[in-house]
């Protein structure tokens, strides 16, 4: 599907969300780096249009946090946002691969994996899926079921299907501040969470900590997707790394570069993008821009793009896993705009918040993401 999706083109056929009196439509958050996402623009009336919609292999967000079941960790991935607006498929890519990659020895290479594969949709739209756990040369199936229904068996919980999008973010404010489009800016007093009414496709598994190296093990986690031909389509660890730091020309290449290669790939281009972006945005801070040494130190934290997590601990994203309520956007906005307390710098950046907070529909038990709207 390649078409411009504007509010006027949608008419009354789908639900239209509003910010004040201005209707708008968009894709999603790390959502803005997706391979199947085209240009995004906001006009002078804050109408937002996109030239493509996300596909079911485009990753929105990855989460890693302590499960409610003792000795278990939750791995969650959302793909293909705005399902309830009817602009994208409500099923996973049959024959494709969705994977959680786990690094247990701190080298940013995947040494354990959870692969999720889906069959063709049945007449009612449901799909059969299976979850396989791979360690070394051994791969075994640990869960299976049908989309839309939670399953527990042999100490593993699994769910795949449509859920309320857990991400919260002032998208129009971001696009106004970064692209200078429309009338909105971050933390301008008019903030509104674009994602609060949207649905997304979600994969959630709850696995024994022993499969992740045991309690206290520091692991790296990132999601990847592949098409039925085995080609890598998308990759994500921490939120918004590709979205914020890489220009459009580099986003697809970044999505296809394994984490351990990201700091040095293309003659260090991705790392240079991080350094240059930090220097530019931290200059907005009243304390002035980060020094070259400081931008380099932060780049070494932000790359490789993986969620680091101490197994069994309470998540505190984006530097220790990522829980559903963790305001990772506030943390990253603050750091990028000069709020990392190097030396004598204070801990408040030029833009410390987007002004919106966590959703109220998260569940206290598996599968944790809110019910679909």
Short summary:
It contains seven helices and 17 strands.
Relevant terms:
373 residues, alpha+beta, seven-stranded antiparallel sheet, 7 helices, disordered N terminus
Explain the overall architecture.
This protein has 373 residues and is α+β, with helices and mostly antiparallel strands. Helices cover 18% and strands 29% of the residues. The chain is built from 7 helices and 17 strands. The chain has helices at 7-10, 171-179, 241-245, 248-255, 265-282, 292-302, 328-339; strands at residues 2-5, 17-19, 22-24, 40-42, 48-52, 59-66, 72-81, 97-103, 112-118, 128-135, 138-146, 151-153, 156-164, 199-208, 218-226, 232-236, 307-310. The strands form 4 sheets. Strands 8, 9, 10, 11, 15, 16 and 17 form a 7-stranded antiparallel β-sheet that branches. A 5-stranded antiparallel β-sheet has the order 6-7-14-13-12, with no helix packed on it. A 3-stranded antiparallel β-sheet has the order 1-5-4. A hairpin with a 5-residue loop joins strand 6 (59-66) and strand 7 (72-81). The two termini are 24 Å apart. Residues 1-29 and 34-38 have low confidence and may be disordered.
